[in-house]
Write a structure and sequence with these properties.
Pathway: Carbohydrate metabolism; hexose metabolism; Carbohydrate degradation; glycolysis; D-glyceraldehyde 3-phosphate and glycerone phosphate from D-glucose: step 1/4. Keywords: ATP-binding, Glycolysis, Kinase, Nucleotide-binding, Transferase. It catalyses: D-glucose + ATP = D-glucose 6-phosphate + ADP + H(+); D-mannose + ATP = D-mannose 6-phosphate + ADP + H(+); a D-hexose + ATP = a D-hexose 6-phosphate + ADP + H(+); D-fructose + ATP = D-fructose 6-phosphate + ADP + H(+). Its EC number is 2.7.1.-. With 493 residues, this protein is α/β, with parallel strands linked by helices. Helices cover 38% and strands 17% of the residues. It contains 15 helices and 13 strands. The strands form three sheets. It has a six-stranded mixed beta sheet, with helices on both faces. Strand 9 (243-249) and strand 10 form a beta hairpin. Helix 7 (298-305) packs across helix 9, helix 9 packs across helix 10 and helix 12 crosses helix 14 (441-452). Bound molecules: adenosine-5'-triphosphate. Adenosine-5'-triphosphate is lined by residues 108-110, 174, 192, 228, 248, 250-252, 321-322, 358-359, 362, 432-434, 437-438.
Length: 493
C-alpha cells in the first residue's frame, strides 16, 4: 500500500512567523495537533477561502439573477440578456391520462439514448438503449452528428422490430435553443463539450428530419422538441401536482419553471387557458456578462480558459459535473506545488486536465473520516505515491469547499424561482448524476434554500426519474393528439 498509516508530516517550507491558533470549525482540530499541521491547514484555508460566500453574498447573487431573468423575459431587453428565458410552448402539465406508444431521443451530455415508451392508465413502460457519441462526431460536422443520430434510431427500431411503424417522436435536446414552436428550435450555441459545425442558428428538428430522409429505411416524425429540464418537470408533475420547477445538475446545469403569460413579453403563441408557459431559463449562461466576476476564483478562470466555450456558461462552470472535478484538481495541484500536500510531489495524473473526475468528489465526501478508504483509493488512482491521513483530510476539505459552493449557487437560483412562483407549496423536480450521486448535495441545497427563500413558501426537492425519456413522451403524447382529456397540454404557434 502506498499511503502511510502513520501521521508522517510532509516536509514543507513554511515561514517562521508566529502562528495564530485557528478558530475555524472545519476540519475539526484535535487540541494536541502539532503546530506545523495547523500552519498547513491555515494556509490551505487561505487558498480556499474564495469558495466561501456568506448569505449576503448569496442574496446579492439572487438579486443579480432575478435582474438578468427579468431582462430575458422583456421584449426590449431580451436581445442583450445573458439568460434567455426561452418560452417552450409547453403550457400545462400532465395529469396521468396520456396514452400511446412513442419514440424519444435524449441528447444532451455524455450519452445519447433512444427510447420506446408506452403510456397507459397512468403507467409508463420504457425500453431504451444508450449509444455512444464518439469525440470526432461531437466535434465534427452537423450532418455527421444527425446522420449518426438517425443511424442509432434505425438500429434501435430494427432491434425492436418497429422499423415499419411511424411513431411520434419527442426529442429531448438539452442545449440552449430558441423555440419557434413545439417542434421547431434553433440552436443558439453548443455547450458541454459539443462543437459540431453548421448547427448553431439552424433548426435542429429540420436537420434531424433531413438526416432521416437521407437514409430512407425509417419513417420518423419529431412532433416535439424539449429541453431536459422540461422533461424532468413533466415527468415529476405526472405524480406531484405541486411540481412547477425542473432542475438539472448533471454534465451541465439548467432550470425551467412555469411562468404566467402576462410576465412573458416575448410570448407569440395563443393566449388560451391556462395562461402560463414553461420557461427554459438557460441559467448556465448567468455571469457571461461578467456580473459574477467579484467572486470567481483563479481556478474558475483557468477552467474557463481551457474550455471549448471560453467566457460562456460562467454559472454552469461553477456548479455542474463537467467542471467540478477539474476545479478541485486545480486547487489540489496548486496546494501540492506549494508543498502543502503529498510532500510537494506532483504526479502526472494530477497535472493532467480533466483527470480528477467529479465522481471522485462524491466518493471522497462519502468516506468515513477515520478510515478515508475511498480517498486513499482515489489518490492511488491519481498516481500519488505517498500521502498521509492529514493529506486525505485536506483533500476532502478541498472537495467540500468546491461542492458546497456549487450546491449553494444552485440553491440561490432555485430560491429565485420559488420566490417568482410564490405559491405556498412548490415541488422542484431534479435530475442529473451530480445531484443523485453526491452524498450531500441534496441536504446542502435544502439548508441553503431554506435560508434564502421568502417566508411562507414551502418547498420540496424531488428526484425525477428519467425525465428526458418520460417527459419527452408526455409532450409528444399531447402534440400527437393521442391525449384528449386535457383541453390544451401544449400549443403550437
Ligand atoms: N458519482 C457521481 N457524483 C457526482 N457527479 C457525477 C457522478 N457520476 C457522474 N457525475 C457527473 O455527472 C455528469 C453526467 O451527468 P448525467 O448523468 O446527469 O448526464 P447528462 O445527461 O450528460 O447531463 P446533462 O443533463 O447535464 O446533459 C458527468 O459530467 C459527471 O461529471
Amino acid at each position: 500500500m502506498k499511503w502511510l498509516d502513520k501521521q508522517v508530516l510532509a516536509p514543507v517550507a513554511l515561514d517562521e512567523a508566529p502562528v495564530e491558533l485557528p478558530t475555524f470549525e472545519h476540519p475539526k482540530l484535535e487540541p494536541e495537533m502539532p503546530l506545523t499541521r495547523l500552519k498547513i491547514r491555515n494556509k490551505i484555508r487561505g487558498y480556499c477561502e474564495d469558495f466561501e460566500i456568506d448569505n449576503d453574498g448569496y442574496k446579492r447573487i439572487m438579486n443579480l439573477l432575478e435582474h438578468e431573468m427579468d431582462k430575458g423575459l422583456g421584449k426590449e431587453t431580451n436581445a442583450a440578456a445573458t439568460i434567455k428565458m426561452f418560452p417552450t410552448y409547453v403550457r400545462s402539465l400532465p395529469d396521468g391520462s396520456e396514452e400511446g406508444n412513442f419514440l424519444a431521443l435524449d441528447l444532451g451530455g455524455t450519452n445519447f439514448r433512444v427510447l420506446l415508451i408506452t403510456l397507459h392508465g397512468g403507467e409508463v413502460k420504457m425500453e431504451s438503449k444508450i449509444y455512444l457519441i464518439p469525440q470526432y462526431i461531437m466535434q465534427g460536422s452537423g450532418n455527421q452528428l444527425f446522420d449518426h443520430l438517425a443511424d442509432c434510431c434505425a438500429k434501435f427500431m430494427k432491434a425492436h422490430a418497429i422499423s415499419h411503424l411511424s411513431l411520434p417522436l419527442g426529442f429531448t435536446f438539452s442545449f440552449p435553443c430558441k423555440q419557434h414552436g413545439i417542434a421547431s428550435a434553433s440552436l443558439q450555441t453548443w455547450t458541454k463539450g459539443f462543437k459540431c459545425a453548421g448547427v448553431e442558428g439552424e433548426d435542429v428538428v429540420r436537420m434531424f428530419h433531413e438526416a432521416v430522409k437521407r437514409r430512407k429505411d425509417i419513417d420518423i416524425t419529431c412532433v416535439a422538441i424539449l429541453n431536459d429540464t422540461v422533461g424532468t418537470l413533466m415527468s415529476c408533475a405526472h405524480d406531484d401536482h405541486n411540481c412547477e420547477i425542473g432542475l438539472i445538475l448533471g454534465t451541465g446545469t439548467n432550470a425551467c419553471y412555469m411562468e404566467k403569460l402576462d410576465n412573458v413579453e416575448l410570448w407569440d403563441g395563443d393566449d388560451k387557458e391556462p395562461k402560463q408557459v414553461i420557461i427554459n431559463t438557460e441559467w448556465g449562461a448567468f455571469g457571461d456578462n461578467k456580473c459574477l466576476d467579484w467572486f470567481r476564483t483563479p481556478y474558475d478562470k483557468e477552467v474557463d480558459e481551457f474550455s471549448l466555450n471560453g467566457g460562456k456558461q460562467v454559472y454552469e462552470k461553477m456548479i455542474s459535473g463537467m467542471y467540478m472535478g477539474e476545479i478541485a484538481r486545480l486547487v489540489i495541484l496548486k496546494l501540492t506545488q506549494e508543498g502543502l500536500m503529498f510532500g510537494g510531489e506532483v504526479s502526472e495524473e494530477l497535472e493532467t486536465r480533466q483527470r480528477f473526475y467529479t465522481k471522485y468528489i462524491s466518493e471522497i465526501e462519502s468516506d468515513d473520516e477515520d478510515e478515508f478508504r475511498n480517498t486513499k483509493q482515489v489518490l492511488e488512482e491519481m498516481g500519488i505515491e505517498t500521502f498521509t491521513i492529514e493529506d486525505c483530510r485536506n483533500v476532502r476539505y478541498v472537495c467540500e469547499q468546491v461542492s458546497t459552493r456549487a450546491a449553494y449557487l444552485a440553491s440561490a437560483g432555485i430560491a429565485v424561482l420559488l420566490n417568482k412562483i410564490s405559491k405556498p407549496e412548490i415541488t422542484v423536480a431534479v435530475d442529473g448524476s451530480l445531484y443523485k450521486f453526491h452524498p450531500k448535495f441534496h441536504d446542502r441545497m435544502v439548508d441553503k434554500i431554506s435560508t434564502l427563500v421568502n417566508p411562507g413558501i414551502k418547498f420540496k426537492l424531488m428526484v425525477s426519474h428519467d425525465g428526458s425519456g418520460r417527459g419527452a413522451a408526455m409532450v409528444a403524447a399531447a402534440v400527437a393528439g393521442i391525449h384528449f382529456k386535457n383541453d390544451v397540454i401544449v400549443s403550437d404557434s
